[in-house]
Amino acid sequence: MIKYKFKRKEKDDFWDTLRSRVNEYFKDNELDKDANALMERKTIALFTLYLTPYFLLIFAGITNYWILMALWVVMGLGKAFIGTAVMHDSVHGAYYKNKNRNWLITWSATLIGVDKLIWKIQHNVIHHTYTNIEDTDEDILPRFFFRFSEHQPKKWFHRFQHIYAPVFYCVPMLEWLTTKDFAKAIEYRQRGFIKKGREFRIEFTKIIGRKLLYYIVFIIIPILMIDIPIGASIAMIIGSNAVAGIMLALIFQPAHVVPLTDFVKQEEEDMESCWASHQLYTTTNFGMYNPILTWLVGGLNFQIEHHLFPDVCHIHYPQLATIVQKTSKEYGLPYHSFPSFRAAVAGHFGHLKEMGRSTQKLQVQGA
């Protein structure tokens, strides 16, 4: 993987101006950038959504399949929303300023079956740095079945990808629970994100321990405690995680894989833009004026603000959006946004449909 170098300054120091204005906002309003009481109450509510069905499944003695499946579905939704609204902030270090307190919240990743170290490397380090850069940003890797941009090879079945995508979007959460964390740990060791030798052995052991904790609590105990055949319980667990998977895909994909955003095919090490403006070209918001959506998805409908200020708790994104919009307009930079979640999802699937049919190649930067 090429370690691309962004320009330090561009268009009269857009990033310096924006960062200064955001810092002034927090200072003038005497606010901290991390979680507040509202965020803590939200966290309690989301864990209640996730764990209440779990305890009903374990202790209520329910054997009706429809009720059991409904509880697993609610757990799947709770898992997705904890992932976006709690775990996501904590692994970015944006929940609490105090490292020890923030570390405790990062265990929310373990409770939903995702390893926090692997997530941090793939998401925080790679995706946030090299957003929508082909062959580097793992979030847009086609993985054979998809064609997310015109830079990627087109196969005959891609013309149907907008139809079969929801089925495949159910899979990532199941992959996280089984093979992904282990496979990525080995890959990231080879790529230098985890040091070889003692550090890798320690981290890999921790990954195994965290995964076993999840398996025991959320797979083995339910199978043993719910008085239905094992096969039925396993099917329901798979269904629950499929619900979480597709919800996460529908939240993350419309932020980057839509017609509004750029996909960069970069041959040279030096980028043509600075990092901050690159985020504006490759990221889009949606449903910015829908407070319920913002609450549920952890402010990830303000994906631009999140990419520019990942160390700020998402509870502040709606206020930062006004500053980012104003500054980007002043510097002639784009600010992409869909009016609603529905429009963003439609934009994503429309993009998949177009990519399944289009054969046009985009210009390669640095060529």
TrEMBL record:
Transmembrane feature ranges: 43-60, 66-87, 212-228, 234-252
Any Pfam family: FA_desaturase
Source superkingdom: Bacteria
Keyword tags: Membrane, Transmembrane, Transmembrane helix
Alphabetized CDD domains for the sequence: Delta6-FADS-like
Domain Fatty acid desaturase residues, every copy: 66-338
UniProt-recorded name of the protein: Acyl-CoA desaturase
